[in-house]
């Protein structure tokens, strides 16, 4: 790959083409089984400004409420066309992710942090479970901190990314203090991976039964807030050749998430996930 970590134009064009193929398969299943979904993050920015993937971006992110996410996990393995694979803890025991990915077989998108994991490394579309969060900022903070701790434990079952208490498998360790590393090491030595995943899931969905909550969130960050009413009233947008969904009042969500939201991003601020190895 290029030294400056930038995609060549033909690479990015081929990657976008493959991402749209995977997205079309996800949308087909969701439409067939009436599973609501919506673009989030950078994909929502792309839908808002470009009706497509952001020109320099290299992934697609989809959100689903917890109930619909679990339905998708149950339905997709039986419905995906040949050549596609639904990756989550239940189908790929070595995945380090708490969320799901729909990957295309016979392709590769191998990122540095997971290069040593024996799992499916195909080009993917990310699918995130979205859960209600408490309106109380202190409760939000506690939920987020505990969820992130168990997410770190889930990752650590497959790859160690920190300086202390283990051999770091990336060149520059992620920031993590000694005490946190020690606690992660203790938990992963005691609990099976599936137990850690289930604990994390219950932390994320702890507030889903309440009717008074204002926002959904992926729980791991404090910026991904999407108003409950905006997910209950999704709207369609053009996304490449497809019709896809975004939250109602998508600009409000995006400006909450990205205070410096704008269409044109200077080249030095363009962030991608360019992999160590890419194969179409």
TrEMBL record:
Domain spans labelled LicD/FKTN/FKRP nucleotidyltransferase: 30-258
Stored PANTHER family: LIPOPOLYSACCHARIDE CHOLINEPHOSPHOTRANSFERASE LICD
Pfam entry (one): LicD
Highest taxon in the source lineage: Bacteria
Descriptive protein name: LicD family protein
